[in-house]
Amino acid sequence: MNQEYAIEFKHVSKIYSLKSKDKKHTNDKRFYALKDINFKIPQGEVVGVLGTNGSGKSTMSVILAGISEVDEGEMIVNGEQALIAINTGLNMQLTGMENIELKGALLGLSKKRIEEIKQGVIDFAEIGDFLYQPVKKYSSGMKSRLGFSINLCLDPDILIVDEALSVGDKGFAQKCLNKMTELKDNGKTIVFISHTLAQVREFCDTAMWIEGGMLKEYGEVDEVCDHYAEYVDYYNGLSNADKKKERDDKFEKRLLVNHKVSLFDRIFHL
Amino acid sequence: MFKSLRYVLKENFTNLFRIYSIAKYELLADMRDSKLGLFWNFANPTIQVLTYWLVFGIIMTGRSEQDGIPYICWLLGGIVVWFYVSPCITNGCNAIYSKVNVITKMKFPVSILPATVILKELFNHLCLMVVLVILFLFFGFYPNIHWLGLIYYLFCASMFAISLSMITSVLNMLARDTRKLILACMRLLMYLTPIVWAPSKLSKHRLLSVLMQFNPIDYIVQGYRDCFFYHQGIASFGTQIIIFWVITFVLLICGSYMMYKFKHKFIDLI
Fold first, then answer.
1. What is the ipTM of this complex?
2. How many domains, chain A?
3. pLDDT tens digits, residue range A190-235?
4. Which of A62, A167, B143, B177 is positioned for an S-S bond with A68, CB 3.0–4.6 A?
5. Which is it for strands A158-162 and A81-84: parallel, antiparallel or unpaired?
6. Is A20 found in the same domain as A149?
7. Are B102 and A105 a contacting pair at CB < 8 A?
8. Longest dimension (CA), chain B
9. Residue A37 included in any domain
10. Are residues A73 and A188 in the same domain?
């Protein structure tokens, strides 16, 4: 194991099975959500992950966070990783204060630690007197701010941020970015999954472009962003028929056909 | 096998605060949901007890006594167990599924979920016990040293419910039919257990009374009644103690094994 790398992917693949159109077909098609991905992220690096919809970004984030297992290959993680999940675990009936305690506990913090982070969360979330109101009365921006703040007060070695900043207004997004920059300066590794090219360019050192479940490019942030922007422009410039063809081509490459699935596999390796 | 048992036990014991917090805030959220809150935790069992008292204490006075104990008291002394175990079983099998949004968004020790459900029900059970003890005082049953045995039987019931929920909650993730099956069988299970009828009815059928020894709920029901009325002591059950703990232990081992085997697969099972 090489300690210099925070995350190392070795030929990682994730496979989902698809139901075939007619139910009589017994051998379902199988589909590569991620296919043969190799990369090494050095410690302390901030990586932006780019990709169009359905290219496997979210699958990647759950695998990185250790929630889902890889089907092929190997993932080596040096350190504790955490996925920033904004609205998860917030209970609508409870007040903001109680939600801080609940979510803190859900994330596995000790009672003492929760007391320590409380003030920080309250300051960061800027919800003022709403702290003692039930969360169901919150605006959606407030909810996200509360959820995000609790997450940021965790202290993992590797942070995975999946589209987290697409909620909330510009000001809050900036505040989060500043906070994450602070974490970055503390030597945390951050994987930043986003659609917003501007944020990626500003915040990340390197970038990774996933397309159709495969790693297309991994390198300097500006270079990858330029290529990705070019591709998006090219794709948007296509006629509808060409777009469909492009999509089908990509889909075809990810399929794993004629894979016999035994009954045992169906039950235990869904 | 034992590796998985050790894994599940370790996960549960290192996350005691997490279990406590989840149960606490779920109860709190339930209470917040209604205007009267905690009142219902006592009102609900009181009304249940009143219903049985009305039916068996006033209307159907044909069976006024059971072993020299007013039938209503005898019935309630056993049915409280059912009021505890039954929601534990039905909610226990939903333990993981109801927390899907949490386990797919963060790294979460899934095997603690059955314990949180049982802890939550335990609180409701204690509320019911308070109501029951007050009623017993009216009938002239005063607390004595034998009532301490209730703590042991409460522990038995909780261990049994947790072990069973480990299995059913995982099965419910594999196929949601599990919960439907269990819900359908609950009423049957209630009448199969000597709760509303006396176990002495079985004395003519040797085979049935032997088979009844293998019903773990029967052991707990008889245990409760023993503590309340008969005062024979924990040791008086003979082989039934061993049978109960063997069944519970086997369930726990199977449950742990399934939890361990599927711990990273739940996200793909939704």
1. 0.80
2. 2
3. 888 887 788 888 888 898 988 888 888 888 888 889 988 888 888 8
4. A62
5. parallel
6. no
7. no
8. 58
9. no
10. yes
What are the residue boundaries of the structural domains of chain B, listed by start? 2-269
pLDDT value at position A264? 56
Q: Does residue A170 share a domain with residue A109? A: no
What string of H, E and C letters represents the secondary structure of chain B? CHHHHHHHHHHHHHCHHHHHHHHHHHHHHHHHHCCCCHHHHHHHHHHHHHHHHHHHHHHCCCCCEECCEEHHHHHHHHHHHHHHHHHHHHHHCCCCHHHHHHHCCCCCCHHHHHHHHHHHHHHHHHHHHHHHHHHHHHHCCCCCHHHHHHHHHHHHHHHHHHHHHHHHHHHHHHCCHHHHHHHHHHHHHHHHCCCCCCHHHHHHCHHHHHHHCCCHHHHHHHHHHHHHHHCCCHHHHCHHHHHHHHHHHHHHHHHHHHHHHHCCCHHHHC
Q: Judge whether A173 lies within some domain.
A: yes
* Residues in chain B within 8 Å Cβ distance of A106: 18, 21-22, 102, 106, 108
* Contact residues, chain A, for B32 at CB < 8 Å: 93-94, 134
Q: What is the average pLDDT across B90-94?
A: 93
Using a CB-CB cut-off of 8 Å, the residues of chain A touching B269 are 270
CATH of the domain at A270: 3.40.50.300
Q: What is the mean pLDDT of residues A113-134?
A: 85
pTM summary value: 0.85
Amino acid identity, residue A119? Q
Q: Closest Cα to residue A177, out of A152, A154, A157, A155?
A: A152
Verify that A249 and A121 share a domain, yes or no.
Answer: no
Contact B22 A67 (CB under 8 A): no
A210 part of a folded domain: yes
Residue of A66, A85, A102 lying closest to B21 (CB–CB): A102
A223 and A262 both lie in a single domain? yes
Which residue in the set B29, B102, B264 is minimally distant from A94, CB to CB? B29
Tell whether A3 and A72 lie within a shared domain. Answer: yes
In the listed set A94, A129, A155, which residue is the last one of a domain according to the structure? A155
Q: Which of A37-46, A147-156, B51-60, B202-211 has the highest mean pLDDT?
A: A37-46
Write out pLDDT tens, residues B185-224: 998 998 888 888 888 877 788 888 888 888 899 999 999 9
Residue of A nearest to B30 (CA): A93
Q: Quick check: A94 and B106 CB within 8 A?
A: no
Are residues A214 and A133 part of one domain?
no
Residues A234 and A197 in one domain: yes
